[in-house]
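Hello again, I could really use a second opinion on something today. I owe you a coffee for this, so here goes:
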Amino acid sequence: MFDAGNHIIHVVNGRLAPDSTTRAADVRRIVAQALETQASSGIVLHFHGGLVPQAQARHVAQESLYPLYAQRAHAYPIFFVWESGFFDTVRNNLQDIARESLFQEFVKKAAEWLLKSLPAGIGFKGGSGASVNEAKLRQDFDDWFNGRRASPPEQLERAPGVTSAATAAKAKGAAIDEQTLEANITESIEGDPQFQDAVQAVYNGLYPAGQERPATRGIGTQAAENSLISKEAADRLFEKQTATTKGFGPISWLKIAKSVGAIVIRSVQRFRQGRDHGMYTTAVEETLRELYVDKLGRSVWWNAMKKDTADAFQDGPNYGGTVFLYELKSQLQNKPAPKITLVGHSAGAVYVCNFLAAARHWLPDLRFDVIFEAPATTHTLLADTARNCGTQIRNFRQFGMSDALEADDVLVPIIYINSLLYFVSGLLEDRPDEPLAGMARFLTEREIYETGTFPDIEACRQFYARFADSLVWSPSHAGEGRNCEARHHGDFDDRDAPTMDSVRHILQQGFAHP
């Protein structure tokens, strides 16, 4: 029977949670019991992903993972439950942004000029260059944003059989004169009352009755009373008004056009490099970066969450990972080490990388089996882990989705129609299209992500090659230990039966197969 006190280590900001039953003495007891049980399949340390609030993590551990690990696989499970569920605030922000006229109009304008700025014949269904059907594009956008259409405008879709590499090869010839682009966008805006109304409404929200609205900062706060636009973006778009200013004053459409042009130029550059995430998603990502960057959770959620996984292994008596490793080292003295399997789902894979780095100090001779499920770790972090801790990894297998499934896994309807990993890669890391280990595209699209330019990806390819059948991309029916049918990012650890059974098989029978 599941007893949380014997299987859960609760960590907050890297430290053992002060308001829970997990204290150093409890970790000592959990480690002792795990070793004394001598489960036939060893010990499993499970690190959940970054979208999981504490209550949900505990529920999944009890209802889905404990039966899998303990009852079916005959292992002793230990769950690191860490406070990582702040993404609900980000999701709410994205839903609100999707309803803003400013966001919708900027995406429409940016997508139109992105199509016009790319060479004709580059491979999109509606054509590109001078052949763009503006009226149909705008109508399809309006239908999409208002729920009358099931997908974004088809003019933004690649034609069948056209690859990112092929698009990139043709896009390299796209020459953009910034001043000409801005002049053309200005002229377009001046003839577009719907776009103007959306901008004017936000301006009025920033300066009600001619007075600047007090700016608030931080995730979920607003610079304007009717928009989540960031303070920095508002300063770029509008001339600041003073309390003595009467009325709203003129809006510089050239200044607005410069912002739209910046989105277009960055998007074109990504197409030239083959680093785009599709026409629609790229336009959305660059619009979010331009107007709403502080509402995406990069600093408050993503970077803070990654920091928490590293902080757990700081020196000190209350850091959860350090206490665990100290107890494991102490209690393994003069005892044979059991098989220990590390399972990391999504951002839990980042936790595993930090665990291995710390274990190298505490237990340099101990080797671990590692299972990643849709890992959100960058190729840079995984390459560093392989270089520095590779001798501690005895066996390795990674489960993920094919790129087609990844692209179809809708994170937030309308505004972000790709997966969480696409969102992290496109918006939350330091640069757009940051290579993530859990995304197949960075390994399969070798023409774009080639060795000379992306040495960390190549280092990961070499790491994967050390292990038989190290990569399993859904849908896979390759046999026991290698089956996976996950269709969504959250499926792997507790919803997709084939993946769960593959993990059970690995724990019981090992990584080899007949």
Summary: Confidence is low (pLDDT under 50) at residues 215-220, 243-248. The beta strands are 8-12, 15-16, 43-47, 76-82, 340-345, 368-373, 393-401, 471-474, 476-477, 483-484.
